[in-house]
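Students often ask why inverse folding is considered easier than folding. One informal answer: many sequences map to the same fold, so there is more than one right answer. In these notes we will look at a single instance of the problem. The structure comes first.
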C-alpha cells in the first residue's frame, strides 16, 4: 500500500505545508494573525488552546484546532466524533499518563502547553488519538463555536493493493489485515469477498474500522 500525501492548507494564511511543516508554521502564523485581528476587533478576546490531534498509529491524519479554554472535554470529544470517529456510539475517554479524565472537566483545568494526552474511541476496535497541547493564546472566537479548525491533513492518496495503479476507494475488511484489502473501483468490482465486507476509504484514522463510513 503506497501512499502519497498532498500538502495541507493553513486556513489562516492559505499557505501549504506537509504535517511537520504545518506544526512549525502555525506556531508563528497563529500569534501573528492574532496581532492583526486585534486591530479589527468585533469579538471579545478569550483564552483558547492551540492543539494538534493525530492518529496515534496513523500520524498522516491530523487536525490543528483552536479550542476555547472554557470548553469541557466532552465538547472536544463530540467534535472528534463528528469529524473522524463516530460509527455506532461507542464509549470514549481522554487520559493523561494512564489516568482517565472526567468529560465534564474544562480544558483550562486540565491542559497546559507541552502536555500530551491520549484519546480513545471504542474499547473493542479502538482508534487512538494523540492530543498535543501546543500553546495557549487569547483572541477572538466565534460565538457558539468553541472548536475551530486551523488546518487539516489532505486525504492521502493510497494505491490499490491489487493493481497498484489506481487510488483505493473501498476497503475489504476481510482482507485488509493480510495486506490485500485496499481496492480501487474496478478491482473492488471483481473482488471475491461479499460486498457487505466493504467500507469506503475516508479521510480519517478510523477508515476501515468497525462500521465507519465517514
Ligand atoms: Zn498560516
Ligand atoms: Zn462501531
Ligand atoms: Zn486496482
Ligand atoms: Zn476480501
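Output (designed amino acids):
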Amino acid at each position: 500500500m503506497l501512499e502519497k500525501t498532498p500538502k495541507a492548507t493553513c486556513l489562516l494564511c492559505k499557505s501549504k505545508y506537509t504535517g511537520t511543516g504545518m506544526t512549525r508554521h502555525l506556531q508563528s502564523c497563529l500569534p501573528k494573525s492574532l496581532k492583526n485581528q486585534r486591530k479589527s476587533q468585533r469579538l471579545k478576546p478569550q483564552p483558547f488552546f492551540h492543539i494538534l490531534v493525530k492518529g496515534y498509529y496513523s500520524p498522516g491524519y491530523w487536525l490543528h484546532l483552536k479550542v476555547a479554554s472554557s470548553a469541557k472535554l466532552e465538547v472536544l470529544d463530540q467534535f472528534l466524533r463528528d469529524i473522524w470517529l463516530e460509527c455506532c456510539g461507542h464509549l470514549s475517554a481522554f487520559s493523561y499518563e494512564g489516568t482517565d479524565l472526567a468529560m465534564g472537566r474544562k480544558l483550562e483545568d486540565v491542559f497546559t502547553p507541552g502536555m500530551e494526552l491520549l484519546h480513545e474511541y471504542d474499547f473493542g476496535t479502538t482508534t487512538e488519538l494523540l492530543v498535543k497541547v501546543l500553546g495557549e493564546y487569547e483572541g477572538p472566537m466565534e460565538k457558539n463555536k468553541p472548536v475551530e479548525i486551523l488546518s487539516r491533513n489532505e486525504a492521502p492518496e493510497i494505491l490499490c493493493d491489487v493493481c497498484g495503479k489506481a487510488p483505493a476507494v473501498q476497503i475489504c475488511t476481510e482482507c485488509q489485515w493480510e495486506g490485500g484489502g485496499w481496492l480501487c473501483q474496478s478491482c473492488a468490482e471483481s473482488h471475491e469477498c461479499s460486498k457487505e465486507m466493504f467500507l469506503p476509504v475516508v479521510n480519517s484514522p478510523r477508515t476501515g474500522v468497525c462500521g465507519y463510513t465517514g
